[in-house]
Amino acid sequence: MCGIVGYVGNQDATPVIMGGLRLLEYRGYDSAGICTMDDGDVDIRRSAGKLVNLERLLKEHPLHGTIGIGHTRWATHGKPTVANAHPHKGGSVVVVHNGIIENYLLLKEDLANKGHDFTSETDSEVISHLIDEKLKTAESLESAVQQALRDLQGAYALCILSHKDDKTLIAAKSGSPMVIGIRGNEYFVASDMPAIIANTRKMVIMEDGEIAVFRNGGVKFTTTCGDEITKESRYIDWSPMKAEKNGYPNFMLKEIYEQPLAIRNVFAGRLREDEGDAFLEGLNLNDMQLNSFERLCIVACGTSWHAALVGKYLIEEHCRIPVDVDIASEFRYRDPLVSNKTLVIVISQSGETADTLAALREAKSKKAHIISICNVVDSSIPRESDGVIFTHAGLEIGVASTKAFTTQLVALYLLTIRLGRANGIIGLKKGQEMISALYELPALVEKTLKLDDQIEEIACEHLTSWDAIYLGRGISYAIALEGALKLKEISYIHADGYPSGEMKHGPIALIDREMPVFVLAPNDRHLVKVRSNMEEVITRGGNVVVLCSEGDLETGKRAKYTLLIPWAGEALSPVLFTVALQLLAYNIAILKGKDVDQPRNLAKSVTVE
Ligand code: F6R
Is the pLDDT of residue 239 over 80? Predict the structure, then answer.
């Protein structure tokens, strides 16, 4: 998604900004641009496509100046062309913008009537013209920005320059993330800490409605009404992991293979074998508090929502607590029934997904208690939660989530143990058994990874498919959805996940010899039913690949291909089936020649609605 990097100090701004933008590249974008100010001259370079194009342009037409702003754009309003790339200039004002301005059409019409000419189709360009318009009567750039921001509806993180105030950089935020790094009298502004953390660890995290004005080697913070505010800086003690492929051909494969370690990291130091319990310090809830909730509600988007579905099965089954699962973009707008008796669990890899963050805020406004399951430390979602379970999966660069998902499943398993021990539904012995099963899991993931050659053979048979169906029952239904999403994302083959019992209610009409059907048939209580559902597909000529548990020599007999997945028990098998489906999607995409790390149209962290 869009990235912002700004700089003001005594160094040449261009390499600092380009270095920061490069660190945000993996998040997905489709054009880029940069603007610097040098002795009152404002100069902009923009290009469509990847940063290399912008770098090439900068080589031919270098920029100078110690103050500047840069942007990588993930198109929302307007195609990914040069004209729509940021920075945008309206009169004397240049802006880069993350977020969406919802009232931009009204503002644009009004500004056009006042004589402003627009050169892009974006909502963002309106901001530069609006500030420029305010500058006509405002006493300073700072005041013009404050006035303009009061007219904006929607979400923004902004960096602003104007040659009319050529020693000043302004940053502002509402609804999209923005942080400031400080090193002496140099300031680094970014939408994401990793873009600037190599320069400094002294950071100020901006909150909604705040403006930062950098001038004369100092910074002043105000509200949009112009009231000055004091902000504390924090020392960031975590180190961003380096984005290195370590010999793998791409990040996705590396991250798939990192799962045994990533899973170990989720439970390391969090298991109490003698008590049959999980120790989740970040929850900040004792047994009595945990037992005071009437119900749980898990909210997330995309792959994290699939983890939420697994969480529902685990918690309802093992703790007998009612759990609702919601897609964050739906939850936030339907006046959800939550109260101070609801424990809301928010799941997000990035911690910055706009819909998930908004859902969290909605639940908070209704007094619900919020805990998050998150990978990125210091991101907005854990910061705004009452408690957090970090998944410690490490940096995930591949846009299609792999290790972040399986570590979320393990975090939910730990939470299940904790909730069940707190309400007594999970006894000591069962808690201890659940812990033992978890200790076995990393080795079983390694064993599943060894199926790669077999999976590649199956992949070869499915390169020309246009569609695919994934079937699962019970907890495996969520994994069917996740398998289908992985295939869609990276191979661009349309795929759907269904509860296998639903086939005969409609989707079975799709079955013919061409349609691959991937059936998840672990050795759990649903196996007999899944076999019947699979038979219904085979009877109609369906092309079935079945994933069943090691030792099950029966289920695959009539399928075209069978993959035997290690058995980790009903609650943890979803992790192993997921790993096999990740490899399947990966192999199909690679054999089709797709870019698995940066699939088309996708962004790693979805910071707009
Ligand atoms: C799919 C994928 C997305 C994310 C979704 C939520 O592979 O990665 O569906 O799961 O955008 O992102 P987070 O978990 O960062 O909130």
Answer: no
